[in-house]
Amino acid sequence: GESVGLHLPTLSVQEGDNSIINCAYSNSASDYFIWYKQESGKGPQFIIDIRSNMDKRQGQRVTVLLNKTVKHLSLQIAATQPGDSAVYFCAENIGSGGSYIPTFGRGTSLIVHP
Amino acid sequence: DTGVSQDPRHKITKRGQNVTFRCDPISEHNRLYWYRQTLGQGPEFLTYFQNEAQLEKSRLLSDRFSAERPKGSFSTLEIQRTEQGDSAMYLCASSLVSRTSGDNEQFFGPGTRLTVL
Questions:
Q1: Chain B contact present for A10, CB below 8 A
Q2: Interface contact A102-B45, CB threshold 8 A
Q3: CB-CB under 8 Å, B110 with A101
Q4: A75 vs A93: CA distance, rounded Å
Q5: Which of A86, A91, A113, B33 has the most CB atoms within 10 Å of its CB?
Q6: For residue A1, what pLDDT band results from cuts at 50, 70 and 90?
Q7: Do A51 and A75 form a contact (C-beta atoms < 8 A)?
Q8: What pLDDT shows up at residue B40?
Q9: Is B108 in Cβ contact with A98 (below 8 Å)?
Q10: CA B9, B14, B16 angle in degrees (round to 5)?
């Protein structure tokens, strides 16, 4: 399943499918990007990050792709599990001088059906 | 549990009252951030500290809001004369910044949900 972020804030997939969550960021000067997972009643939890000198980074079951040309970020989750159900946010870093002050996107709700 | 704690978890108050929230970061972390999150939106940055120094404040942080981190450990966020528009989740996060690696992953607390009646 695939989302287009702001235009489709909910993504429903079946357990075992791959999920793709998309994010369009706004500032071409942003050089650091993070995906967060937020479960109900909890604060955001870091999933994976990527710097602007890379276009792909892989973690455990997750991959982040960065396309700076079109200012687009995606999070791919392999073999989605019910525990992956949450709201996913991308965040871009627009800080400078060593500060990191993320600007969060609106978020996409991922629902995984068993 | 990320190691960042916030108290209280929920606060209901009447318009015009003052409220204070507390955040206890991960003990070795030198940076502490406050965010506000409304339903369906991502967190919005309010302010951050490095040790006890408040280094940056968002324009979202009106004069009614004040934050402190007096000993470089826990932090408090006070809202004076609360308004209904202040109803939100207030999140705290901490991180460890070093000379070699710069700022690192932020660990978020569970948040304090404020309801202003």
A1: no
A2: yes
A3: no
A4: 17
A5: A91
A6: low
A7: no
A8: 82
A9: no
A10: 115
Q: Which residue of B has its CA nearest to A6?
A: B41
Q: Which residues from A are below 8 Å from B55, CB to CB? A: 99
For the four alpha carbons of A49, A45, A38 and B20, in that order, the dihedral sign comes to: negative
Q: What is the pLDDT of residues B87-114, one digit of tens each?
A: 999 999 999 887 666 666 889 999 999 9
Buried b (16+ CB within 10 A) or exposed e, A63-95: bbbbeeeeeebbbbbeebeeebbbbbbbbbbbb
Q: Are A28 and A67 a contacting pair, CB within 8 Å?
A: no
Q: Which residues of B touch A41 (CB under 8 A)?
A: 110
Q: What Rg value do the Cα atoms of chain A yield, rounded? A: 13
Contact at 8 Å (CB) between B46 and B61? yes
Question: Pick from A43, A91, A103: which is nearest to B91 by CB?
Answer: A43
A97 touches chain B (CB under 8 A): no
- Res B54 pLDDT > 70: yes
Which residue is associated with the tokens 């997972």? A37
